[in-house]
Write a structure and sequence with these properties.
- The chain has an eight-stranded parallel sheet.
- It is an alpha/beta fold.
- It is globular.
- Helix 2 links the parallel strand 1 and strand 2.
- It contains nine helices and eight strands.
- Helices cover 43% and strands 16% of the residues.
- The longest helix has 22 residues.
């Protein structure tokens, strides 16, 4: 099977798994969007995925993504899903359409400042460390509201929702707990007026995206299940 056919088959499989998970949880399949994670893969992979209808792509590092993003036209929608350092905020706001990893008040302030300098308002999600893993980035659950209040006060940021990464350990049950926690936080923050009614939940990757869909994900971040191992 050539690369194009293999990618088409993997995409069909991922979409069917997403559909089935949505049905199991009583949701419409259209309520979940697929974000293709292309970190480590060349621009040719992005173009092949675009030929199959994908329009949202995620990268983890600003520097790695820069050349790739510049080489692809027409431009898809680019998401930064990895940790963002404040000194990369200027370039990130120029390159990306959505930032999934706001995890501190100073970062939110810098992203807003740089977005306004670029003449834009950038869509952002607050990253929450729902698992308590010390090796992970993200704001602790008990500080989410404070960060949302601060980020929402900045004119350069359009708060669109919350993001989390499943735990390193704990298997499917641990992932489900983490995703349930994020869904609960979103509900609380929506009721408090800190997030829009249609706030996104960006959660679930190749190993656990079906569980994430069952627990309310609106965006799943899938790389390996679509593209295989790193190029």
């Amino acid at each position: 099977m050539d690369e194009g056919r293999e990618l088409a088959a993997r995409l069909a499989s991922v979409k069917e798994r997403m559909r089935a998970a949505a049905v199991r949880s009583g949701r419409l399949e259209q309520s979940v969007r697929l974000l293709a994670i292309t970190k480590g893969f060349p621009a040719a992979t992005v173009r092949a995925a675009m030929d199959l209808g994908l329009r949202d792509f995620g990268e983890s590092r600003v520097q790695e993504a820069e050349v790739k993003i510049a080489s692809i036209s027409p431009r898809p929608r680019w998401h930064l899903v990895g940790h963002l350092q404040r000194n990369k905020a200027k370039r990130a706001t120029q390159l990306f359409d959505v930032i999934h990893s706001i995890d501190s008040q100073p970062l939110a302030e810098e992203v807003s400042r740089r977005a306004l300098e670029a003449g834009k308002k950038i869509a952002c999600l607050v990253e929450v460390n729902t698992s308590g893993d010390r090796s992970k980035f993200g704001v602790p659950p008990d500080r989410v509201r404070k960060l949302l209040e601060a980020a929402g006060a900045h004119d350069g940021i359009d708060l669109r929702g919350l993001m989390t990464i499943g735990p390193l350990h704990g298997g499917p049950a641990g992932a489900r707990r983490a995703f349930q926690d994020l869904a609960s936080i979103r509900a609380e923050c929506t009721r408090a007026g800190l997030l829009p009614e249609d706030a996104d939940l960006s959660m679930g990757m190749s190993d656990d995206f079906e569980i994430a869909v069952e627990e309310g994900a609106t965006i799943v971040r899938v790389g390996t299940a679509l593209f295989g191992g790193q190029a």
